[in-house]
Amino acid sequence: MSADGFTRMSIYGINLDLFSSSPIVILKVEGENRYLPIWIGQAEARSILMKLQNQEFSRPLTHDLAASLVSELGGSMERITVTELKDSTFFATIHLQIDGRAVEVDSRPSDAIAIAVRTGAAIFAADDVIEEAAVEFQDQEALEEAPEDEVVDKFKDWMNRVSPEDFK
């Protein structure tokens, strides 16, 4: 656990839940083998993936527009936090600096992550959310020594067995 109640995360990837055909963004606890799967919408998954793969549309997407608005108004996006898990729904907050003052904006995690990848903002999750919903692979040593494609295959196998109800 961290001192301030939040742990830094990184985007591990986006996968598809075969049962519901819903995309899942997978956040990884930095320096650990714990992963936080968050079911998201198709549009948000596409937006995150496009930016991660350095693809651009000829016109800005909604998340591009939000990042541009903050920047043009003299603000900066400091970080996003996945703050809560309630009734199988994740909640997030976008932390901005505008004219020297801290501003917090309620958000869906998928939108916050999509904007964070555009602005380079750090991603954090509340320690209690990680404790409640993160998945840990038991054989971390074997996982670290395995080729990357085997790690992805193991994670996909797990993803094929898990459902949103497993996180209630």
TrEMBL record:
Q: BFN domain: from which residue to which, for each copy?
A: 6-137
Entry protein name: Bifunctional nuclease family protein
Q: Which InterPro entries match?
A: BFN_sf, Bi_nuclease_dom
A Gene Ontology molecular function term for this protein is:
nuclease activity
What the entry lists under Gene3D superfamilies is as follows: Bifunctional nuclease domain (3.10.690.10)
- Pfam families documented for this protein: BFN_dom (PF02577)
